[in-house]
Amino acid sequence: MHLNLFAGISNRFYMANFNYKASDIKGNVIEGSMDAREEKSVAQRLQEKGYIPIRIASVEETTEDVSELISSPDIFNRISQQEVITFTQELAGLLRAGIPFDRSFKTLIGLVENNRFKEILRGILKMVEEGSSVAIAMEKFPQVFSKFYVSLIRAGEASGALDTTLTRLSEYLSRSKELNKHIVTALIYPIILTTLGGLSVIILLTFVVPQFASTFSDLGEALPTATLVLLKISELVRGYWWIFCLALLALYTMWRLYTNTPSGRMFWDSLKLKIPGIGRIIRKAEVVRFSRTLGTLLAGGVSLLNSLDIVGDVMTNRSIAKSIKDIQLKVTHGEGLGKPMQNEEIFPPMAVEMIAVGEETGRLDQMLLEVANNFDEQVKENAKRFLALLEPVLILVMGIIVGSIVVSMLLAIFSVNELPF
Alpha carbon 223 to chain centroid distance? Predict the structure, then answer.
């Protein structure tokens, strides 16, 4: 009694927590944790109980080897989303085949090509072998495994259906990546078109127009007004291009700093929702993200309140994320999900109606996934239509700009014969 009290107040007798693995006389392996001053004390207590110690390690030592991986992310050897998806799919397949978790993990470690990812997986496996849960081990690496990912793993461990959970995870990650890839792919052509058009204008103003300027330098005010304006613009671009670059850089930096603040991010995200065409696509994309994330979490056994808390962090638009936090508060007060969503007016009526029906019939997780699949197709279709309209508009704008430059030069050429010499 006196020793325990002294150990509680003295650093010399500080009680640490140890994870152990031992076997009995029949060869059965047991695992657990124990508070003791040192490893020797744990071994003695296990032997007193008739067990043979196999491995003893403090909890601090368990995470010591991976602390460097946690605290020093490698920016030059990033782990891609596709690598995480492939890992999740293959781990789910191995577990479904009945292969034990540790053996499955070791197999995948040998298959992973990314050295950074390989070391992280080794660290996770070591923590699991020393008594940690898979979710807690993965939670140490938030740059690889998100809060959403870890929550589903934790629910899968609790229900004993980790293979099913991993399958849902891989499907979720694959569908999310597919949607993002579709939008990015659709934007490639407009970006290329805008870039080439801008470069064409810069080349005309800095190289082509000056050649005409030297030819017409002796004509003075007799040049057409359009040509004089063009020559002045060309002169400003060539003489003060660095000022324009610095001004653009300063504006971009100010915009980034402002949008990185909570109020600035909220203002910008709210504004994006009001942009014609783009706002509708963003809103529906967030509906897909909300529905698929929430549906996957509920199907995986995570409670509605915890799921809503995770979903709020997953949303990329802070304005919609704030609305979801308000919905979560109302759900906490027992109002359900459908009515608060309808009052917030952040989602299309069709989505709200489907979710309300799913809640009434007890099939909320299934209905949420159905909403996600439905609006997934709508996002792709709306993006396709918007870009189909945007492309000719960009071509028309670039044509007008380049055409104006050409016409201004032609006017000067045509007016040469009319000029007095």
Answer: 56
- CATH class assigned to 160-421: mainly alpha
Q: What radius of gyration, in Å, describes the C-alpha atoms of the chain?
A: 32
Model confidence pLDDT, tens digit, residues 21-79: 676 666 566 777 777 767 777 778 877 887 766 666 665 544 445 555 555 555 556 78
pTM assigned to the model:
0.69
pLDDT tens digits for range 290-331? 888 888 888 888 888 888 888 887 888 888 888 888 888 888
CATH of 2-59, one of 3.40.390, 3.10.20, 3.40.1000, 3.90.75: 3.10.20
The DSSP annotation for 322-370 comes to HHHHHHHHHHHTT--SHHHHHHHT-S-HHHHHHHHHHHHHT-HHHHHHH
pLDDT at 254: 94
Q: How far apart are the first and last CA of the chain?
A: 116
Here the tokens at position 285 are 């994309």
Give the Cα separation of 255 and 263 in Å (integer). Answer: 12
Q: Where are the beta strands (DSSP E) in 24-102?
A: 29-36, 52-58
Break the chain into its structural domains and give their ranges.
Answer: 2-59, 73-145, 160-421
